[in-house]
Amino acid sequence: MYLAIKEMLQNKLRYSLILTTIFLITFMVFFMTSLALGLVRNNRAAIDNWQASGVVLSDYANDNLTASFIPEKDYQDKVSDDAAPLGYMFAVTNLVDSSEKVNVSVFGQKWDSFISPELVQGNYPEKDDEVVVDHSLENYGIKLGDAIQLNGSDTSYKIVGLTIGNKFFTEPVVFTSLTTYWTLQGTINSNRSISSLVLKNDMDVSGDNLKQITIQGMISKIPGYTPQVNVFLGMILAMMIITGLIVGIFIYIITIQKLGLYGIMRAQGIQIKTIVWSLFCQIFLLAGMGIGLALLAIGGVILVLPGTFFFYTSWLAYSALSIVICLMALFGGVISLPRLLKVDPITAIAE
User: Fold this and answer.
1) Where are the alpha helices (DSSP H) in the chain?
2) 21-33: per-residue pLDDT in tens?
């Protein structure tokens, strides 16, 4: 370790370049991971909060909640404490007397069902013209006690409750009663359809024109969800591999430049294992410092990013990625080992 630190201090510029490279790539890995986690959570957070075991959709919907449509005759006799009806629709909301519109997802349900959101402020609605909304709408100036419109409705809806972490399809969720949902759908006086039956306690529901699937199966069918996740995973994996290759190339070049020095060290009786240990200590220190700087940079980014940005910090994910990046960097150092192990003191000194 002493040899590693001493050499790094004597060649500050050379090792600073390696450190900067590791820092930039690691920061990019952390940043992309946070974007991926933010996008994933914003697509599915409201569904995860159900803590459900399964969901029933219409059989033609291709496991897609947004395309599911279950007529009243197909679900009416299947509603129970373990099978909660849910109506979904995409909508646009705005404050009354305001022209600024915000895209939202509307979830219509019974307020006494297990899929009702957990409140952090306010209370559950007691009237059909009252709603609960995700707190992220505060980023758009919509807060508790405000009156909003949905899809340009003549009726205004008062926000009486706030919940946290309820987004679907990347949009904040507005929770309404089923009556309000049917009113917005224009079916209050006709066929009162729903989008799904949400199940718990591993309940099984069967029926004509219905299909029961797992929650994860439904999430994977959210439009764009799986391709987005795959793209981010591919980018993160590529950057970690690049980190290992870049560190390996830098260390290999430095090793070649120091063959004469290594020859002198070998001639002085220093064992090859000591030289190898010094090499990997350098890599570990450089990787550790690069990761530490990247974590500090992420902390700074968190302070300046707007609340509407798809960014989620997970220190557990950062810790796992840090270990992988360190291992990739150390693996990159293995590229230099064959040349280092073949160092001949006389030949190296002569070069």
Assistant:
1) 2-10, 12-48, 72-75, 178-185, 215-220, 225-257, 259-267, 272-304, 315-333, 337-341, 345-350
2) 889 988 988 998 8
